[in-house]
Amino acid sequence: MTILDVTNPVEPFLRTDRMPHIWCPGCGIGTTVNCFARALIESKIDLQSLALVSGIGCTGRVAGYVKLDSFHTTHGRAIPFATGLKLANPKLNVIVYSGDGDLSAIGGNHLIHAARRNIDLKVICVNNLIYAMTGGQTAPTTPGHAITSTSPYGTCEPAFNLPHLVEAAGAVYVARWTTFHVKQLARSIGEAFQKKGFSFIEVISPCPTLYQRRNKLGDGLDTMKYYKEKSKVKHGAPTSEVGLTMTGEIIVGKFVDRDRPDYQSLLHAQMVESLGESYVEPSETVCSCS
Amino acid sequence: MKADPRGVLTGTHFLDGDHACCEGALAAGARFAAGYPITPSTEVVERFASRVPKVGGTFIQMEDELAASITLQGAVWGGAKAFTVTSGPGFSLMMEHIGYAAMTETPCVFVDVQRGGPSTGLPTLPAQADMMQARWGSHGDYEIIALCPNSPQECFDLTIQAFNFSEEFRVPVMFMMDEVVGHMTEKVIIPPADQIEVVPRRHTRKAVEDYLPYGTNGDGVPEMAHAGEGYKFHVTGLTHDEHGYPNMTPATQDKLVRRLQNKIHDAIDRITLLEEECFDSEDVVVVSYGITSRVAQRAIEMARERGLKVGKLRLITCWPFPEKRIRELAATTKAFVVPELNLGQMVREVERAANGKARTFAVPHAGGSVHRPEDILKVIVEASR
Ligand SMILES: Cc1ncc(C[n+]2csc(CCOP(=O)(O)OP(=O)(O)O)c2C)c(N)n1
Ligand code: SF4
Question: Looking at CA atoms only, how far is residue B228 from chain A in angstroms?
Fold first, then answer.
């Protein structure tokens, strides 16, 4: 008798004792987690050095499913929490994994300031164009005319173009993919690990339960077809030109890859310049254990 | 464990309360602060920003108080002792994260240098009107500890105590200063590091396989691990079980929330710090805290000069409320007089604890200045009748 090895290669990265997860069939969040796990496998990164921080939302639940030091914080505040974690222990590789509403509405101020400071964080933003966890309300990313539970007659607000926003604020790495682009997404996550500084990866992802259904855009499979047909890879595209509409083209690719000293390098340089010998490196003394 | 000498500015100094608080934090081992400027508290972090790079630590000025109050918690899980400092409007913005610290049992200190409110109120003038907010400001059932200093010396000593309590009980500790204490300058003696007792993090010694992030050893306080050590633990503000995993059943909620309450209640005698001059035969006991206790002291002396039998009870620990001592005193005292720089907050607790055994008189003051001793004296005289 042959015993089949049925272990999924991403299983070691997941808290399998917490399965089944809460996500709906056809939801894109699980796909992004799969890509994330594959990026970890491929980059051979030391898992012990990783910490993952989420805010609140369907995407925010990612923190609870990854077998890493993981923090499910408050709505919008994953980035400042991650900032404290990274500053207290600079050796950590800190990932922020959260939704578009969490990161760009309630947490929007932290998003731009972390990019400005160039804190060494890898931000994965699952953009389902809506507030899903709370039942499908309008987000700052909801495209014009879309129907949501709080815009029953269609949204009128202009939406945020997140790559443009974070590039302007100072991010060193900005990419966008959809959940159709699993290989490219995993590769981008791997690339972000190589960068020192504020990296931002936007993943356009379906919420069939609330967004697609209400807008008569079909199910999960229809959305995949849409992503496949309407996505155009344009590496280096000017981010001002990558805004999204409800049914139009989705520009994907790596938009920004540049170098700029990260916050901790700047801090170190400034302190050495001003204090010289009397500057004591934080990492030497920060731990509070006996 | 003894304080790390690098953070201790041993000697006799002339400091204001804000600066003394900063020195207390450094002596206690705080090596991380996140803040957002607000009068009358900013001097604490200004001094920290200048001092901490020389002792091995970090200050970051965040974009707002919502950020500051969670950034410091990230730093705690990264291994640091950390705090934030604010005043009225900023304290209001921090409430969600006081709840997060209570729920996740993140040891940390929130310093609130109280000013007149509501809203922007009196930015440069004192009040003690955040006392109930400190206790109840975040939603849900939880416990915190709140300490109230009345001098720059105590701003130093009790900041260390605040950090020690936060580590011992894994609870956010509110350090409730006020504008006058924050800005008054007095002699502050900082002892040598080997005379300063500092409580280290309750870090687990368990092997990764044996570690239960929210399991306890009987005293209700779990052991911590830090990110990056291989424990692969999960922290959430959702109701969680001993693994730290979300578990949203009434039974888990009941067990968790009761434990968060009981770990403080069960240790209330140890947490309660009082300064007392009562001989169990007073007609009146003046109950006060913070700056008001210094005005009350004068009023008590004036009353005693007139032959009145007046005792003094100063609350150093305001939360958990030391109701046992109030109850005991209520049995032998005619009345309590409670002056405070608000229109009646802690006086409600005194009245509740006295439970009709002694009468309770408030001496309210809307803030902006301190009481006149005569105002308190008048009520003492009335209460003695
Ligand atoms: C302070 C606060 N306000 C509101 C909420 C309710 N809330 C929970 S998740 C959420 C929106 C999440 O949307 P998004 O970040 O886009 O994540 P998704 O669920 O779509 O993955 C809101 C408004 C909350 N938890 N906390
Ligand atoms: S509601 Fe939408 S985003 Fe949330 S799990 Fe379901 S499909 Fe995914």
Answer: 5
